[in-house]
Specification:
Largest sheet: 6 strands, mixed
Number of domains: 2
Order of helices and strands: EHEHEHEHEHEHEHEEHHE
CATH class of the largest domain: Alpha Beta
Distance between the termini: 30 Å
Oligomer: single chain
Strand order of the largest sheet: 1-2-10-7-8-9
Number of helices: 9
CATH architecture of the largest domain: 3-Layer(aba) Sandwich
C-alpha cells in the first residue's frame, strides 16, 4: 500500500538519484555517472522546493510572519515557483520586474495571484532590486531576494546536500552543478566538503557568458544558469573548478540523455552533463550531476 504524503512539497525534498549508464556507455566513460533529479513540482525545476523552503526558513527564525506580504525582484522560473508557494502558504506577493518583460509572462504571474510592479529597464537589475527593497519597507513586507539571501544555499545545506549524501553514502569523486543564483553549488558544496571529505566541486557556466571566471557576459540559450553576473550566494572558495559549456553542446547532451536513459533534462542539465563528461575523462571515478530542471514532452 502506497504512503499518503501531506503535500506535494514533501515529495520534493528528497529526489531520486539515478545512474546514467546509457549516456556513459555512449561516450565511453569508465567511471560511474550519476544524476540527482532535483525537480518534480509545478515548474519542473528545483525552484519549486527552493521557494517553499526559503519561506519556511524565514518563518522558522521569525523574520517572516504568517500572512506577511512578500516582495521579490524576479520574473523567471523562481517567480512562478514563488507565486505558487506564496498562494499555498497564504502570503500576498508582489513581483517587481522591468517593463520589458513579455506581457504573456506578466499575465501568467498575475493569474497565479501575484501583483506586478514594473520598473524602467534602463536602470537594469540594480534598479529592480532597489525598488523591491523600497516596496518592502513601504508595506512592511519581506524581500525574498533569492540571489543574495543565504536562505537559498541554506536550503541546499539542509535538504539537497543531505539527500545526496544519503543516496551515495558520500562515496563521490565529484559533484557538478550549474550556477544560476549560486545557491545549489554553494549549499551542496559546503555540505559535501564538510561531511564527505575531499569531494571535487565543479561549477558550470555558459561558454557565452563567463562571469564566474571574469570573462565576457553575453547572450546564451541555457535557461537557469549564467545570469550575467556573479550572484552574492556564490561561494568561490568551495569551488575547485569552473567548466564552461556552449549552448549547442548543452542542448545536444540534454537530447542524448533522454534517448539513452529516458531522463527528461533541460539545457542547464545538459550543460552539467557535458561538464561531468569532460571531468570523467580526466578524473575517472564516481561523478554526480545535479539536474535542476526538466524538459517537458507532451
Amino acid at each position: 500500500m502506497s504512503e499518503t504524503i501531506a503535500n506535494i512539497y514533501n515529495t520534493l525534498y528528497a529526489r531520486p538519484t539515478v545512474r546514467l549508464e546509457g549516456y556513459a556507455a555512449r561516450h565511453g566513460l569508465s567511471g560511474e555517472l550519476l544524476a540527482y533529479l532535483n525537480y518534480g513540482g509545478p515548474t519542473g525545476s528545483a525552484k519549486d522546493a527552493l521557494a517553499e523552503g526559503m519561506l519556511a526558513l524565514a518563518l522558522e527564525r521569525g523574520q517572516l510572519s504568517p500572512g506577511q506580504p512578500l516582495i521579490e525582484a524576479s520574473s523567471g522560473t523562481f517567480a512562478v515557483a514563488l507565486a505558487i508557494a506564496a498562494a499555498h502558504s497564504g502570503h500576498p506577493l508582489t513581483l517587481v520586474m522591468p517593463a520589458t518583460v513579455m506581457p504573456d509572462r506578466q499575465r501568467q504571474l498575475a493569474e497565479l495571484g501575484a501583483r506586478i510592479e514594473l520598473t524602467n529597464y534602463v536602470y537594469g537589475r540594480a534598479g529592480t532590486v532597489r525598488r523591491a527593497q523600497q516596496l518592502a519597507e513601504e508595506v512592511d513586507g519581506y524581500f525574498v531576494n533569492y540571489f543574495s539571501n543565504d536562505d537559498n544555499p541554506e536550503f541546499h545545506r539542509r535538504v539537497t546536500g543531505p539527500a545526496i549524501l544519503r543516496a551515495t553514502g558520500g562515496e563521490l569523486t565529484a559533484v557538478v552543478a550549474g550556477v544560476g543564483s549560486g545557491g545549489t553549488i554553494t549549499g551542496v558544496g559546503e555540505y559535501m566538503k564538510a561531511w564527505a571529505g575531499n569531494v571535487w566541486t565543479v561549477a558550470v557556466q555558459p561558454f557565452e557568458s563567463q562571469s564566474l571566471t571574469g570573462g565576457f557576459s553575453g547572450r546564451h540559450q541555457i535557461n537557469g544558469i549564467g545570469p550575467g553576473f556573479v550572484p552574492d550566494n556564490y561561494n568561490p572558495y568551495i569551488v575547485d573548478e569552473v567548466i564552461s559549456v556552449t549552448s549547442g553542446d548543452a542542448a545536444q547532451a540534454a537530447r542524448e540523455v533522454l534517448m539513452t536513459d529516458a531522463v527528461p533534462a533541460s539545457a542547464s542539465c545538459g550543460a552539467v552533463l557535458c561538464a561531468a563528461r569532460e571531468l570523467q575523462k580526466r578524473k575517472a571515478g564516481r561523478v554526480l550531476c545535479i539536474f535542476n530542471g526538466m524538459q517537458l514532452y507532451e
